[in-house]
Structures are given as C-alpha cells and as structure tokens.
Amino acid sequence: MAVLDILRYPDTRLHTVAKPVKQVDERVRTLVADMAQTMYAAPGIGLAATQVDVHEQVIVIDLSDARDHLQVFINPVIIAHSDERADGEEGCLSVPGIYDEVERFARITVRALNLDGQPFELEASGLLAVCIQHEMDHLKGKVFVQYLSRLKQSRIRGKMAKLDRQVA
Ligand code: K1U
Ligand code: ZN
To answer: How far is the CA of 117 from the centre of ligand 1 (A)?
Structure first.
C-alpha cells in the first residue's frame, strides 16, 4: 500500500471528469487500498480518485471514530434524492484549512459497485449524504469552493498560493 500525493486547488487536474471503471480487478482494488491509506494518513473522512490524479469513478469514505469502517463506491450514481436540502460545513483535503457552508440534498439513494464488482444501493442522510455528494462532485471535476462566491474563491486561491510559497 502507498500514501499518494493529493492534488491541491487550484490545480487544473481537479477539474478532470472521471471515467467509469470498466472492470473491478486487482488494479482497482490496489487503487482503493492506496486511496484508503492516503485518506487515513491525511487525515480525512473521504477521498475521490480525482484527488490523487486518477480519473476513474472511485470513492472511499470512513466516518467511524475507530477508522475501521471503510466504505467504497465504484461508479456511483445518485438514483433518488429528497426535495429537502440542508446546509452543512464542508472541508476538502485538496483545499487545506478552508471550511465553508454548502447546500446539498438532505437524503440520497446511491447505487454503486463494491470491491467484488457487485452492485449495491445505499440510503444516506446526514454527514454520509454530504460526503458522498462532495466526493461525487470531485469525480465530475467540481471542487466545493466552486459553490462559494467569486470573492471567496479568489481569496481561497490567494491563501493556497501563500501555502505553496511557504512549503517551496
Ligand atoms: O474530499 C475530501 O477532500 C475529503 C473531505 C471530505 C468531506 C469533509 C467534510 C464535508 C464534506 C466532505 C475531508 O475529509 S476534509 C477533512 C475532515 O473533514 C476531517 C478530518 C479529520 C477528522 C475529521 C474530519
Ligand atoms: Zn474534497
């Protein structure tokens, strides 16, 4: 297993649209293991393949306190959602140190493949629903700051440039 580099906003590769996984094989299972290790090391509660510069539809999430309940979504699709929406604070490993409110569907039903390539459906609400929608946005090339005002986006780009200068 390996800890992978996470792309930082405003890296243009974060806006690449991910392709569906054709076959869930050992290559994909290794990618999932590496993504999980990367998410745990960061630390974060979710990670999309886009963030590690792999443009395939793979998401990992772990919301457990013990960090022992990995959820894997391959080729996820939201097949139903509530009319109700909810505001929640979001963060992103690709935009370190920035947290802001985003409006999402309050409840979703997602269909995806598991690590055996088998389809499953899951109803999600609360933080899990938020996290799935945030990670699915990554697969579509969208970063959560794109929901914020142009002024906030510009300030965030400035903060990220400053961070880059500090580590260079
Ligand atoms: O996609 C990502 O960059 C991961 C992101 C997921 C997420 C968090 C909050 C709302 C929506 C999506 C993160 O994991 S940011 C870090 C974070 O939330 C966290 C880190 C350590 C402990 C607990 C939370
Ligand atoms: Zn993110």
So the answer is: 26
**Is the backbone peptide bond immediately before 96 cis, with ω within 30 degrees of 0?**
no
Domain spans of the chain, in order of start: 12-167
**Which ligand is located closest to the Cα atom of residue 96?**
1
Cα-based torsion angle of the residue sequence 116, 122, 128, 133 in order, rounded to the nearest 10 degrees: 90
Q: Does the domain spanning 12-167 belong to CATH 3.90.45.10?
A: yes
At 30-67, the pLDDT tens digits run 999 999 999 999 999 999 999 999 999 999 999 999 99
Which ligand is in closest contact with the Cα of 41? Answer: 1
Three-state secondary structure of 28-50: HHHHHHHHHHHHHHCCCCEEEHH
Contact 35, 47 (CB under 8 A): yes
Q: How far is the CA of 136 from the centre of ligand 1 (A)?
A: 13
The closest residue, in CA terms, to atom 12 on ligand 1 is 131
List pLDDT tens digits, range 104-160. 999 999 999 999 999 999 999 999 999 999 999 999 999 999 999 999 999 999 999
